[in-house]
Amino acid sequence: MVQINASAITYTKGGDISKILLGTAFSIDTQALGPRQVVIQALATPINPSDLNQLSGTYASKPNYTSELGTSVPVAIGGNEGLYKVIEVGKDVDTYKTGDWVIPKLPSFGTWRTHALVTLDNTENPDPFIKVSSDDDKSIDLAQAATISINPSTAYQLIDQFIKDWDPNGNDWIIQNGGNSQVGKFVVQIAKTRNIKTISVIRDGKPDQDEIVKELLDLGGTKVITDKEAESEEYISNIVPGWVSGGKVILALNCVCGKSGATLVSHLTGNHLTDYRSPHLVTYGGMLGQPLMYSSSESLFKNVTSKAYWLTANTKRNPQSKVETVKKVLDLYKSGDLKPVPFNGKEYNIKSSSDEYVKLFLEGIAESKNGKQVIIYN
Amino acid sequence: MVQINASAITYTKGGDISKILLGTAFSIDTQALGPRQVVIQALATPINPSDLNQLSGTYASKPNYTSELGTSVPVAIGGNEGLYKVIEVGKDVDTYKTGDWVIPKLPSFGTWRTHALVTLDNTENPDPFIKVSSDDDKSIDLAQAATISINPSTAYQLIDQFIKDWDPNGNDWIIQNGGNSQVGKFVVQIAKTRNIKTISVIRDGKPDQDEIVKELLDLGGTKVITDKEAESEEYISNIVPGWVSGGKVILALNCVCGKSGATLVSHLTGNHLTDYRSPHLVTYGGMLGQPLMYSSSESLFKNVTSKAYWLTANTKRNPQSKVETVKKVLDLYKSGDLKPVPFNGKEYNIKSSSDEYVKLFLEGIAESKNGKQVIIYN
């Protein structure tokens, strides 16, 4: 009998994150592997804001509670994003092989675990993983693969899903708040590959503002302004129109809402009387509790369309859309057009105890205010 | 020489409506009629809120200034909606004949005039009128025809343009504020012809509330509630869901914005995780200066799409869309499915002076706060 000693970050009920997390030790017997089972081992598991909302119980996408880890009561396993390596496959498995790097296709997989034993017999989800690399074809590296599932996929769909007729000659612009976010950094890069210009709005008064601006411009951003500048009449009426010139600000990406979202709308270019294209405000975040709001006359006279974007929902409704998006992002990584956005990696020795595992996650969660945290396994 | 003595309500510059209106007397020599000219005589000219915004200079659709009335400086003629009778046609005109009842196809025609001499040589607008009735085919009456151009056309397009897959079995609902508006009354009637159920939100505390509710239910409305009821948790969580039952509130029609628009969104039915249909908030008014606003989490979790609707813009961009809409509304009148919504008619003797004409319009404008005013010519 070959036992793998594994750990998972679990909880029995959503609530105060500092109190509910449990470290669950469990084992996987690889000699008892079923013919349609695979064992995967974690390479990297990010901590995303939506993971924390899910732990708090405030997220509309609910976790799955399971008894598969052998706990006395069903538990949910934290996390929705993770990069794994396939380490064992049953004899009837031909879609995955050992050495493949894979990510779960669907949300709520419960990625915060060192290992998982997965049965491929679920007819509703026969291919539960998307392969992103393999031992034979090491086409992307760990930094690229670790976070491919959520942030670059979100950025790709935000650019791809709402405006279908992007001008190929560089006359179309995107404006986004949250310019310094992970998604924002992927947006500027992916926009550049399509000759779309970008204005990234960042928070005013950050001590490292010059570095942030430089990073965004180096990634391919066209312009970077602060939220105070974006709100000012001078930028709305003169400076930004001067940059955009004969072009159009046709897409506003909003992850903040409130006044910040309203300001984005003031920068959109549209004329209901003469244009056939409707400028779009797309909101993909704003959980701070501020409403979505903007001028009703601007909405009417510019013919603004406002839509909600949620990667998790798109994936649940149409899993294949996620597969296709990840493929497009992989291609961008392979071509060198996309660079991974830096994150803070926290190393975890996979042989450590489940208590150590919880401790590391609690640290990562506490630090995730300051930037994206990713647990890297060795 | 046969002279028609005509009057028009004109202005040389937008501004304070009580001060800028001029009565311009002019004449039309019918014996000098060109081969591609027609003379039309007013039957009814409504006063709409958008006309007043245009006079104030605050409307994005600007008036045309003209010297055709023989004034010393160019003037704009008030009004965008009007029913006319063709009284003279030039020898080469075959698209209109005397006795036809017509409405201008495009906005900013300048309808507030007793007569108009129109040349059909404009290659950009070769058919400037939509025929709604004629001496040979008196299929609709004056009350139906007088206001066909704007309010029922708006209601028709609001229902037709955003939700394409209405459930034919009566499981889809519309919620609208401004339930007691002219557009609101056409919405309940047109919705009923398609087996769409309606909730009309009216202002709380009106002394004639019982009559308003009865009128809306008689017109075919399903439910009528006050704005205070609509805002209440009891209506949002229990009463309205009880009415809607297994159905969906899939379209919210908003002409108010602010809290009232936000409340409509709270009544929309949507689930981003499982539904493919996006519930729509469609805003077609809200010039009170309140922003468009609603909960960002509702937007995200319900997958709400918010769009702007503006009949004038649709018509300017695609005049044929207006022709087709009026045809559909005419069919509904002819079939008896649509009843004209009462307005306050003010009679004007077409032989009176232009001073009298201005006086009547100023009265009508002052009274238009209390309901729709229409100048009827005799």
Give an account of the 3D structure.
The structure is a homodimer of 378-residue chains. Chain A has 2 domains: 181 residues, Alpha-Beta Complex (Quinone Oxidoreductase, Chain A, domain 1); 159 residues, Rossmann fold (3-Layer(aba) Sandwich). In chain A, β13, α9 and β14 form a beta-alpha-beta unit. The first copy, chain A, is elongated and about 70 Å long. In chain A, α4 packs across α5 and α4 crosses α12. Chain A has 378 residues and is of the alpha/beta class. Chains A and B meet through β15, α10, β16 and α11 of A and β15, α10, β16 and α11 of B.
Summarize the structure.
Chain A is of the alpha/beta class and 378 residues long.
Helicity level of chain A: 25-40%
Quaternary arrangement of the chains shown? homodimer
Helix segment tally of chain A: 13
Low-confidence runs of chain A: none
The CATH topology of the largest domain in chain A is Quinone Oxidoreductase, Chain A, domain 1
CATH superfamily of the largest domain in chain A: Medium-chain alcohol dehydrogenases, catalytic domain
Shape-level CATH architecture of the largest domain in chain A: Alpha-Beta Complex
**Overall pLDDT of chain A, averaged?**
95
Largest sheet of chain A: 7 strands, mixed
Q: How many strands in all of chain A? A: 18
Main location (chains A, B): mitochondrion
Catalytic activity (chains A, B): a 2,3-saturated acyl-[ACP] + NADP(+) = a (2E)-enoyl-[ACP] + NADPH + H(+)
Protein name (chains A, B): enoyl-[acyl-carrier-protein] reductase
Keywords (chains A, B): Fatty acid biosynthesis, Fatty acid metabolism, Lipid biosynthesis, Lipid metabolism, Mitochondrion, NADP, Oxidoreductase, Transit peptide
